[in-house]
Amino acid sequence: MLHQVFRFNWKTWRALSHADRERISAVAVSKLNEIGKPTSEGPSHQTVLFSLLGHKGDLMLIHLRDSVEALNHLELALAQTEFYDYLEQTYSYLSVVELGLYESSAKTYSALAASDVVPHSPEWNAAIKETIDRQSTAMAARLRPSIPQATYACFYPMDRKRDETVNWYLEPMAERQRMMHEHGMIGRRYADDVRQIISASIGLDDWEWGVDLFANDPITFKKLIYEMRFDEVSAKYALFGTFYVGVRLPIESLTNWLSGTI
């Protein structure tokens, strides 16, 4: 998963002739449609565009692909367009869609320990792999999500605290499982109004996770995130990065956006 945030050079764009603007925007729409064209990869091949609010950027592209190489390929393809000359990339975020498996992992670890299986032995590794494979099959739709057809998107990166006095990674598995369960129960109450995609970025980017929320009412983002501020896992262990909020912009509407309308 790759997020790209761009600032658009409106002053230089307005200095172009009407014919040049039409030509460049038409090629840009064609290229973005080509980049985002559905393939046999299914949901794992998507490119969606948002018009951002505020000073952090003007446009945000969210890309889903089945490999890092494919993401790099689309980056390079977009950079070859003349439209790219009017974009300044102000932020990007690389991550991998991930599921939290605290409950199934805890059950597996407990069963292996009760059977006196040596951690990281071939038998241990085989049991863990079997659990992961089973969960991957059962939750394939969540591992290969479709970006929802919602009007608004909210993206932000986050970490778990790991300082001298508060360190998420030093908490026992059972405690982390309990806290994540309580955290998840809040999210479930908003399931009818918000769709989310959680992606992991440890070793890939500056934060540990990326969170994408999609809804038809942006106030829902505020309600959900505010309520979660009070649960233990967020209040005590969470650090949040910059929030980006945008309005969905169909690629075919980019030409209108470049004329000042959505």
Count of DSSP H/I helices: 10
Oligomer: single chain
User: What profile does the largest beta sheet have?
Assistant: 10 strands, antiparallel
The shape, in one word, is elongated
Strand content: 15-25%
Q: Helix- and strand-based class?
A: alpha+beta
Mean pLDDT across every amino acid position = 91
Distance between the termini: 26 Å
Q: What is the gyration radius calculated from CA atoms? A: 21 Å
Order of helices and strands: EHHEEHEEHHHEHEEHHEEH
- Helix share bin: 40-55%
- Number of E-type strands: 10
* Low-pLDDT stretches: none
Question: Would you mind describing this structure in some detail?
Answer:
The protein is of the alpha+beta class and about 260 residues long. Helix content is about 40%, strand content about 25%. It has helices spanning about 10-15, 20-35, 70-80, 100-115, 120-140, 140-145, 175-190, 220-230, 230-235, 255; strands at about 1-10, 45-50, 60-65, 85-95, 95, 150-160, 195-200, 210-215, 240, 245-250. Strands 1, 2, 3, 4, 5, 6, 7, 8, 9 and 10 form a ten-stranded antiparallel sheet that branches. Helix 4 (about 100-115) packs antiparallel against helix 5 (about 120-140).
